[in-house]
Design a protein that fits this description.
single chain; mainly alpha; 2 domains; 10 helices; elongated
Length: 224
């Protein structure tokens, strides 16, 4: 879920809390209970590392023990977490993910020169994952993404430089999958084509953002 939208929702619930008595349980107020529970469900999705905290709070609402004041404190805590998360994401961006992708591309070339063709494709696939995460706003803490499915979605909706994404899937993802799952040994020409496909894709993506609708973004996240 988009953190900015989620933060706006959190602040709306915080404003709504002002008309309720702090010492009473949240469950006493039906409309507040509904808002609080919805907020906690969304919080678990937006901040999955803190999901247990929200699960416990949800349970305490059902048990009629979570007070309005405790909910207020929890909301301020959520806002603190959001601030830390936004700062963290900004710092990650400052690390210049594209440079990391290009480093992986360089490593792929070195592996190719050593005739280590499987490692060539491992590095190419990692470079592809990095650029997709950067351009689609996927947190780097998600270690593995389904690059093939993401590319299929982007190509279907003609988002971004999709002809180059098609080439990257054909010459990098498909070969890398065969290596991992079938013990396939790639050829020299396949390595050359894979390196060329990634060089061209990175060049196209470096100066161009991939703009996706909320619907497409949801489809992408469902396939992670």
């Amino acid at each position: 879920m988009d953190l900015e939208k989620f933060e706006k929702l959190v602040r709306l619930v915080l404003v709504a809390l002002s008309k309720y008595t702090g010492l009473y349980p949240v469950k006493r107020y039906g409309d507040l209970e509904a808002k609080a529970k919805n907020l906690l469900i969304l919080a678990s999705k937006a901040l999955p590392e803190h999901a247990e905290l929200f699960t416990v709070a949800y349970r305490r609402i059902d048990e009629n023990v979570l007070t309005v004041e405790e909910l207020r404190s929890l909301i301020f805590h959520i806002l603190d977490i959001l601030e830390i998360e936004k700062t963290s994401r900004e710092n990650i961006r400052e690390m210049k993910i594209f440079e990391s992708a290009e480093d992986k591309l360089k490593q792929a070339v070195l592996s190719f020169r050593k005739d280590d063709y499987p490692s060539t494709f491992h590095n190419l696939n990692t470079a592809l994952e990095l650029v997709l995460k950067d351009r689609l706003g996927i947190p780097t803490t998600i270690t593995k993404i389904n690059t093939s499915k993401i590319i299929d979605i982007l190509v279907k909706h003609k988002v971004g430089p999709y002809p180059y994404l098609i080439e990257a899937k054909k010459h990098v993802v498909m070969i890398d999958n065969k290596i991992k799952h079938q013990g396939y040994v790639p050829s020299k020409i396949e390595c050359i084509n894979g390196i060329k496909a990634m060089e061209e894709l990175i060049s196209k993506l470096r100066s161009k953002e991939i703009k996706v609708t909320e619907e497409i973004r949801n489809k992408i996240y469902e396939g992670l």
